[in-house]
Amino acid sequence: MPIQAAPINLLTFLQGWTSSAVALPPQRLLFSVLVLPKGNPLTDFAPAFPTANLQFQAGVIASLDALPTAAAATWVPVTANATPPNRPALFSSVAARFTVRPHGGAPSPTPAAVKKWLPDSYRTATALARPRTSIAITDDSYQCAIRDPGAIPVPKSPPAADFYWEEILGFVLRQPLLAQQMGLIYTGYFDLPVADTLASGGYVYIDLTGASDYAAVKRTRFAARVPPLAKARLLFTPVLFPVDQVGDFDNVFEEADAYDDGFAKVVHGAQPTKAALLETSASSMPPAKDMGIRLGWDDEQIAIWLNRQLGVNAYSSVTPAPGSPLGVAGYRVDVFSDADNRWHSLVRARGSLSLNGTDIGSFDGELNVEALPVNLTNNQGAQFWLPSYFTAWAGGSLVVTDPNPFELAGRADVLGAPIYTAVDADAVKLRYGNDYQFRVRLADLTGGGPTASDDPLYPARANVATVPFRRYSRPKAVSAAKGGGVAADGKTASYTVSRPLLPYPDIMFTGYPNALALLTAEAAAAKAAGREPALPDPNAVQLQIQVQARTLDNDTAAGTTTGQPFVPVYSVVVDFPADPAQPLPLNFQFVDVANIASLAGTVAAPNSPLPLPTSRNVRLVLTPLGAEDPELKYWGSLDSRIGSAPVSLYLSVPAGDETGLLLPPAVGAEIEALFLQPDPPPNTATKAALTVQGFRHQAESSVMDRLASELRLSYTDARLSSPSGRRTVFGASSGLRTTANPDSSSITFGSTSDLIRHWIVAIRATINRDWTWNGLAPTGLEIYRDGVLTGRLPLPRAVNPGALVNPDRSQTDIVYFDSIEPKPLGSAFPAELKIDYRLVSIFANAPAISGGPSQWTLRLPITTPPAQTPKIVSAGIAYSPYTHAPAYSSSGERRRILYFELDGPPLDPSDAYFCRVLAYGPDPMLLETGTKLPDPAEPPLPIDPELVRTVAPGQSADCAGIEAMQNLVASPTSDRHYLVPLPDYLNPESVELFGFFVYELRVGHDCSRWSTAQARFGRPLRVAGVQHPAPQLRCMVTRTAAKGITVVAPYATPIFNDQNLRPLYPKTELIALLYAQVLQANSQSWCNILLERATAIPYTLEHQGSRGLNPALTPARAQFDPEDILFKLGILGLPLDSPLSVVAVEILPEPQPINPAATVDRFNDPLGADLGQVRILRTSPLTPVPEVCPPAG
């Protein structure tokens, strides 16, 4: 049920039970009574409340078996303090200070409930498994309510400043002395008439006597529960029991018994370890200032009590709350001092009080810490929340405002005239590194309760909280004196660094000697500097110096604490001077290094400067450090000793020595020219071969594939990029249509047509500096061709993620592409090219020493084939000179070579004519009629396709492709006639010479100049039906007396694919001519006279049926009868023993008519009358006839 109220309400609070000062009776109860009028105390009562004469008596109920009733009470007279004389004046002064709101109208809304979030320290102190009630929570609903309370907008007009008298009297009760002087609180005692009356406990309540004013006024009395009394002790009334009322008070009984000694049972505390005070916050930001120690106590019990005052039963939602007023007005916190081994109150105050000139008296006592709920939605009828902790101690008093921050800020006027002065507040000083013990005493509505010298009567699990106080606020930023930096000579740098400053109250926590006086003396300078007064932090005993260098954007090695990509070079720690006020001098020396890794591991040496790398953007990060504290006896965490605001100093000095800047690339040549041919057309055979090998999805080689493979780069479509783990910067001259990504880590060609049939010059180098080096001007590197600037290669200050896979940060590769047009200008003939390149480093500040530019000379072969096509005017056979024996008995074999007469020499004097065989076929005149042969395939020019031709400096010339064709041999006397050499695989005796050849003639660059294979030869002239001189015909001559002269000679043999195709009956005809030598009339020379002709017969016909003879290989035989020979000699009048010689002639058959029925005149005497009508295939040399062989045997 709700707490009942009447016009007059009397609330009894027991203070102690002690022996009486008189002999009898021996027992005395000390009490205080709170008299609360309801309504206007000046007008609603007669007499007016300030003038009423109140007389009291005590009702004693010597039993705890039932709730208190008037019928069960024994009345005992009491001794109370006299009625204060200043009541009317004080009531008038209070009424004048407030605007009184009359009763009437809609009542104020009642809060729905009061909830309490249980912090970790409470849960730890209680070993909490689950809360006692649903109004105590451990989830994140409190954080959600604070973060997003769904607040009703605050009205623009200020809240009403009028109050009910009940509210005004509530303000009065916060100062018990004022409440006593206004007649609201009376203190006294009474003696028990019978000894041990309350040995078993009972109830006591104070009421008005019949002679008192308001004796006839309706009033509500609330009794105090008395525990069993055995010996003198203090008494406290945490809750009250209505007299003559009923209800479920089971929980109230337990609370009355538990707290009748006036001490909190669960005291807990914690020091904020982060800036966000709410423990459930995900923020990890450390606190900017240490706020001391936060304290709480009896969280669940206080929430239960407050809800009960609102009529909410925290234990049950269906059972009405008992009508038991809360007797606790506030709490008094003690801290234990190890120095004097006693507790010291943190709420004691002293002051002389008056109200509108009316003296109240001198107050020397304790004020209260209150646990008040708040509503987060500006809605009085909604849910209220108790704070996580009820107070925080930062040293000094918990109830008197610390004037030091206001005085140091020069705003002491904000506080006005002080009312209270803290007493004994600094007996225990709050210092880092100490552990503190706290306990909490309860104060009732009349100001009563145990004192700091009292001890709890009952043991409790956590009535004393031990809270360590450590430093969590990290050291602030150090300061560098003006005037520091790089020296004029650019070789050194120096700074003067002072410790970070520590303001109030943190400086007090360090135990800094005479800190408050020093802060006061420093306040004016601090105000002028726009900061709060502070002193050098005595805990910042060291300075960490981190030397960092700015690296490339996107480099994952860079720290993320700032927006700038810096990587560590090295870090050292130096000590501040022992005197906190003394600054620390820092000295640095600049050194030229190729790689900042060489500075890693630098150790600070006394009186020695620290090294800094040149040609880098260097950042010095200065961070103060506290002393090492591995056991955390002083610092709150290992991170707490590290400064929260590192100071960054930026400096940069150019290098004096930049030798060794450019190195040859790790892979490949420094410069190379590539000549790329177009992609070959799709080849079905190649695709089929890849499919058979299991690579059917593999694409054939492309221009980009060949370029990337040659340069060992990665590519996608028309884009080249650096290999993984290597930073590569690409660039290209304007002769190539290219685009580069922002960090130049890849380059995309506008079209692959720009790459083919041009010299693509790739210049590569390795910058032997780590990624932090920034010594070049924005233009970077300049590339000159033949002394003319062809392009620039800036080095972007960014890196592509692809280079960050197992990266090598010590170097950077550069690749620059240039394009050279190889075609001659105008009518000029193709020629080799000689190109000079120069790679120049453009420094932001020219160093005293540098390695100079890189230079190369490229000699490039001809890539343009001759434009001329050969033209044949005639062809013929060239013979060696004719020779014969002195007696003309024989003649020598003549060398015969085919020649072409062309329309003139090559137009380019450095070119030559070349030929090659495309196809071969036997002479059809030598084949059996109707022989069918396949058409021979004509092969392509057998030269290297040179899909990519690479040339580097110093490369020697080759005769690439020259072996694909044979030189025509120029005549020494004519510029139009050229001998055609036999194919390399034939000799003058090869039977293939009986056939016909298809020849290809081209103009080509000879080996006197360097040419690519693809540019070696010009356009072809195809010549079919070419026949070289047939193999030399030779005959074998024998002579006998019986048979005469026998001449044997071979037939022409047609060959195709190494197969002998000669018919059984050869198509050619062999005729032997017999000559006799005659000395001419001048007796100076000999001549031959034809004696006789004989047609040779194949051995096949003479020896038909003979075994072991291959008809295709058998020769022919001609016979001269000895009688005929003598007859002819005689007719001619020649000596019968004239020397004889023979010549064999092979003639081709006469052509057959197309129409078999046609009649064709035959030439029956091809070597006589018909000479010239029949084609002679070949003739033998004049061969002497030997002497007659003697008969056998």
Overview of the structural elements:
Among the domains are: 1-101 and 162-246; 479-500 and 537-653, Immunoglobulin-like (Sandwich), CATH 2.60.40; 662-860, no CATH class; 872-945 and 953-1026, no CATH class; 1036-1184, no CATH class. 10% of the residues lie in helices and 33% in strands. The termini are far apart. It is mainly beta and 1193 residues long.
The radius of gyration over CA amounts to 63 Å
Residue-averaged pLDDT, rounded?
Answer: 91
Q: Could you list the spans in which at least 5 consecutive residues all have pLDDT below 50?
A: 1104-1108
Helix content: under 10%
Structural class: mainly beta
Principal-axes geometry comes out as: rod-shaped
**Percent of residues in β-strands:** 25-35%
Distance between the termini: 169 Å
Number of helices: 14
Q: What's the total count of β strands?
A: 71
Summarize the structure.
This protein has 1193 residues and is mostly beta strands. The longest helix has 14 residues, at 515-528.
Architecture blueprint of SSEs:
Elements: E1 8-19, E2 27-37, E3 56-61, E4 74-77, E5 79-80, H1 87-97, E6 99-100, E7 113-117, H2 120-126, E8 136-137, H3 141-147, E9 162-163, H4 165-172, H5 176-181, E10 185-191, E11 202-208, E12 219-226, E13 233-234, E14 241-242, H6 250-258, E15 267-270, E16 293-297, H7 299-309, E17 328-337, E18 342-345, E19 348-355, E20 358-366, E21 383-386, E22 391-393, H8 404-408, E23 421-422, E24 434-444, E25 465-469, E26 479-480, E27 485-486, E28 492-498, E29 501-503, H9 506-509, H10 515-528, E30 534-536, E31 540-550, E32 566-575, E33 584-591, E34 610-613, E35 618-626, E36 647-651, E37 657-658, E38 662-663, E39 671-676, H11 684-692, H12 703-711, E40 714-716, E41 719-721, E42 728-732, E43 738-740, E44 746-749, E45 759-767, E46 776-785, E47 788-793, E48 812-820, E49 833-843, E50 849-850, E51 854-860, E52 872-879, E53 896-902, E54 911-921, E55 948-951, E56 966-967, E57 969-970, E58 977-980, E59 996-1005, E60 1021-1026, E61 1036-1040, E62 1044-1049, E63 1055-1056, E64 1059-1060, E65 1069-1079, E66 1086-1095, E67 1097-1098, H13 1099-1102, ...
Parallel strand pairs: 1-12, 6-9, 7-8, 7-21, 33-34, 37-50, 42-48
Antiparallel strand pairs: 1-2, 1-13, 2-10, 3-4, 3-11, 5-10, 11-12, 12-14, 15-16, 16-22, 17-18, 17-24, 19-20, 19-23, 24-25, 26-28, 27-28, 28-33, 29-30, 31-32, 31-35, 35-36, 38-45, 39-45, 39-55, 40-41, 41-44, 43-44, 45-48, 46-47, 46-49, 49-51, 52-53, 53-58, 54-56, 54-59, 57-58, 59-60, 61-62, 62-68, ...
